Amino acid sequence: MISEPGPQRPVIRVGIAGLGTATKAMLPAFLKHPGIRITAAASLDEEQLRQFHADFAAETYPSVERMCLSPEVDAVYIATPTPFHTEHVLLAASAKKHIILEKPIATSLEEALRMVTAAEAGGVTMVVGHSHSFDPPILKMREVLESGIIGKFTMAHTWCYTDWMYRPRLREELRTELGGGVTFRQGAHQFDIIRLLGGGKVRSIRASAGAWDPKRPTEGSHVVFFDFEDGASATAVYNGYDHFHTTEWTSNIGEWGERVTAGAYASNRKTIRAMSSSQEQALKSSRSGYNGKSSMKYADRDVQQPFFGLTIVSGERGDIRQTPEGLMVYGEEGVEHLKLPQDVNGRDKVVEEFYEAVIQGKRPVHDGRWGLANLEICLAALKSSQEKKEIVLSHQVPLK
Fold first, then answer.
1. Are residues 92 and 145 part of one domain?
2. Domain named GFO/IDH/MocA-like oxidoreductase: which ranges (predicted)?
């Protein structure tokens, strides 16, 4: 039952499933929202649980199943590894707990459909995020398109070049079948951006993905072409092999709005290649786990608008691009600079969308079927690359 400390603001009590990197990034957004209270956490790591209890006076559990049975939990944020998403969503839905689920929703359409069906049958809200389509500049781009200022959406292009493949990785992050590689992990962001900008109804895609390092045998690059039902088109390009970085094009601002200071060329790639697998696993583990409030990411920092690479949007009568402060809109008669608030980020928007859905009954954009549609494109991109053919889609849904 949703607790109500006062007439103005009902509170959703949230239990956290998994205390890794995603949770450390989401915690500031939960703590900022006046309608969210963190009341529980589940993890296999006893030390993480002890620290979390000390920081938040929260209940702690060694399993998600036990946490879902708590009467002090109204909703569950599921940030466990992708192969566990189905099990944990089914547990939460059967316990009538609302759900925020990290992307990608799953690694197969069958699993995703099971989750969507369970949430709908249980009468609970499920929001799939974070993805960068929640970022304020992307949402503002869509608002500009809907206003008609630059006419009907005609195309979008999003390009991202990073060092993703040579950041410290757990083994499963480099195994495609477990949801690893850039098409699942980073393409999920790009595809969601494109679908939101274009209205959701993608007809088909054609893709080519690359795995260029035998020691890291998963997709590190892709080029994906989108054909929308209304004739619009888009491309998503990703290269995670640590050569050129698109931060050179984005005023040295990274994907969370942080200022990026250029270090030695390809430093991550050279460092990782000099490590043994066990050394890399130890480094990743030391960085990813929750070890106190000081380990939370993106909290209390002076940041700009986030740049997940470079995204350019076109309408029949103009174009849109990002700036560090907001958007440049190139219209028929001139150029307008739209500034956006600097104190709201994409994860804040995840929590806001979730809260409005649970408390106000507002249907979320990023619900389970939206997440299923995004997964369909991830899988279709991989299939298209393998089979060298266009893949027609069947699970796409319109933007609400």
1. no
2. 139-245
Amino acid at 368: G
Query: For the segment 62-91, what is each residue's pLDDT rounded down to a tens digit?
Result: 999 999 999 999 999 999 999 999 999 999
Q: Which residue is listed with tokens 């399993």? A: 63
Q: Does 224 share its domain with 87? A: no
Pair (50, 147) in one structural domain = no
The DSSP bridge partners found for residue 205 are 226, 391
- 56 and 200 belong to one structural domain: no
Q: What is the torsional sign of CA 280, 80, 176, 131?
A: negative
Would you give the DSSP letter of residue 34? Answer: T
- Give the neighbor-by-neighbor strand order of the sheet with 310-315: 335-339, 326-330, 318-322, 310-315, 153-161, 233-239, 221-228, 202-210, 391-392
Identify whether residues 315 and 355 lie together within a single domain. no
End-to-end CA distance of the chain: 28
pTM assigned to the model: 0.94
Q: Which of 25, 142, 12 is nearest to 73 (CA)?
A: 12
Question: What contacts 168, CB < 8 A, 6 or more positions away?
Answer: 272, 280, 283, 284, 287
Helix axes 136-147, 187-198, angle to 10 degrees: 20
If asked whether residues 157 and 278 sit together in one domain, one would say yes
Whether residue 359 is found in the same domain as residue 273: no
Asked whether the beta carbons of 89 and 101 are under 8 A apart, the reply is yes
Burial of 382 per CB tally in 10 Å (0-12, 13-18, 19+): buried
Question: Among candidates 364, 348, 365, which has minimal Cα distance to 27?
Answer: 348
Does residue 51 contact residue 290 with C-beta atoms inside 8 Å?
yes
Q: Is residue 98 part of a domain?
A: yes
Does residue 222 fall inside a structural domain?
A: yes
- What is the residue whose two structure tokens read 């689920």? 101
Please state, in angstroms and as integers, the Cα–Cα distance from residue 149 to each residue in 153, 324, 332, 337, following that order: 11, 22, 9, 13
Domain that holds residue 174: 133-342+376-392
Residue 159 CB: number of other CB atoms within 10 A?
A: 18
| Structure-token pair, residue 313 | 């949007």
- Asked if 293 and 214 sit in the same domain, the reply is yes
Q: Dump pLDDT digits (tens) for 289-332.
A: 898 888 887 655 556 889 999 999 999 999 999 999 999 999 99
